């Protein structure tokens, strides 16, 4: 019996792999969710395959960036793979994703980045909404070798690596996890968790252009870490993940205001928990499609028990103004 099982196992895995190369529509809301939170509208969720049809691995996605001029979605993995895709909408509903091409991030000599150098965690498109096609550049944040660097959309470097004082004290795997655009301050970097010398429940934000810094208070949920930033309602939208087993996995969306005194005020808009029946995973990436519509993506850590979920949601602008005194 054991030999027969071992013989059938490769066949079963092959069949499962073949079936798993298609994108499937799904939902974060399950029958176990009693009352979905108000103030957020879901506009479609997809479960992505472990590999595209051409056998390219799709796991380990750590961030997203929307290029409005090209109508393209960029997805970066922590293995240094840069995916181009085109989301498919039926009206405002996300119904599919068309993979286009995958590139490997490369160094100035044209070689693929080594594993330690390729740990990409955050991403924004620069010049992606100026009405000019073909001039987009990607700004990418990396962990382990803590730095930022600009790349062309084909994965070749557009600048030398950029090392910032704001990255000081970052732990080995908890560096430039979040990267977003503030309406006034420009590109803002957020460290995943407290660097050395800071309180445990706070972390550091800093501006790429000026180096100005802010102390960001993490959410109260045990294990909260900052995983993404984006533009929201004159300020920023932060995505936080709280993972501290055996506690439930908690995902928080928070509005952020940058104050002149070096502090950041954060207000929790929506909080989702697996303990309340939500179908969640390791959400790390966030991008803004326009207005207050966003996509967020989960990193499956190349684990058979995790999923890569791409979810669309919308936040009304009055939500922050109504509830946040800042």
Structure in a nutshell:
With 326 residues, the protein is mainly β. The chain has helices at residues 2-19, 318-323; strands at 24-26, 41-48, 61-67, 72-77, 81-90, 93-104, 120-126, 137-142, 147-151, 178-182, 186-190, 202-207, 213-217, 224-232, 235-242, 250-258, 264-273, 283-290, 293-298, 308-314.
How does the SSE layout of this entry go?
Elements: H1 2-19, E1 24-26, E2 41-48, E3 61-67, E4 72-77, E5 81-90, E6 93-104, E7 120-126, E8 137-142, E9 147-151, E10 178-182, E11 186-190, E12 202-207, E13 213-217, E14 224-232, E15 235-242, E16 250-258, E17 264-273, E18 283-290, E19 293-298, E20 308-314, H2 318-323
Antiparallel strand pairs: 1-2, 2-20, 3-4, 4-5, 5-6, 7-8, 8-9, 10-11, 11-12, 12-13, 14-15, 15-16, 16-17, 18-19, 19-20
3D structure, described in words:
The protein has 326 residues and is mostly beta strands. It has a single domain, classed as Tachylectin-2, Chain A (5 Propeller), CATH 2.115.10. Helices cover 7% and strands 44% of the residues. The protein contains 2 helices and 20 strands. It has helices at residues 2-19, 318-323, and strands at residues 24-26, 41-48, 61-67, 72-77, 81-90, 93-104, 120-126, 137-142, 147-151, 178-182, 186-190, 202-207, 213-217, 224-232, 235-242, 250-258, 264-273, 283-290, 293-298, 308-314. The strands form 5 sheets. A 5-stranded antiparallel sheet has the order 1-2-20-19-18, with no helix packed on it. Strands 3-4-5-6 form a 4-stranded antiparallel sheet, with no helix packed on it. A 4-stranded antiparallel sheet has the order 10-11-12-13, with no helix packed on it. Strand 10 (178-182) and strand 11 (186-190) form a beta hairpin. The longest helix has 18 residues, at 2-19. The chain is globular and about 50 Å long. It starts with a helix and ends with a helix. The model is unreliable at 1-19 and 318-326 (pLDDT under 50).
